[in-house]
Amino acid sequence: MEQDFNNGEWWRYRQYHDKDGIELNVVGLVLLAAGIVFLWEDPQLTTFIICLAINVLLHECGHYAAGRAFRCVVRRVAVFFVPAISYKQRATSSYDPDTHSWRDTVWILGVIPFGGYTSFEAANTPTPADPRRSPFLNHKPAWQRLVVNTAGILVNIVTFLVCFAINGFSLITAGNPWLSTMMYLSLSLSILNLLPLYPLDGSAAATSIYEIISGKKPSKTFMTCYMVVGVALFIYLFWINPTFLNNLISLIMGR
Question: Is the pLDDT of residue 236 over 90?
Fold first, then answer.
């Protein structure tokens, strides 16, 4: 054991704790029930929300799969925000990347249909001599972090191409609202997440690319300014004036 500590593999002997089994959030369940009642009378909106949930789940599973491929510990995977139902099979989990599995991750279903997130563990310690063995995403080389950060986008692109092929390589669907919605949303999520705006995937990808090219990480001052500007632009484009993004996606989809 002492030898492992000297090699920097202290994480193999550390654990973290969550509640195991199914966990219900009262506020989330109330909002979920209200949402189901509201959607019951609107089949079109119901189709949109279900297809959005599927696309978000596929997107986050892309991040999860890429992170696990690089031996990262994944703490949480969430579809939508404000959790209603959470599930984790093992309450006590190890940071050992060789034993970590989906049973050590909290899987969350939320009720606010605005994206999701995959939470990787990080450590405020120097990068070990062999970062490939570390379970922490921030220890990984920049190119691996780039793959993890863009994996969700790639999954959405693949989803779009599959739906596009099923539809006979046409963007116009007739009488199939599910296929049309899946194509529109998978393409939309791909485009939106490519934007280098915090907290979108594009921002993390941009900083990883900068590190690959320059050979050094951006300064804390730069990252603070980058995050503030990104959040401001994010709020403007998504809430204050979403016309530009809507027109761009509609143009690509031929609508």
Answer: no
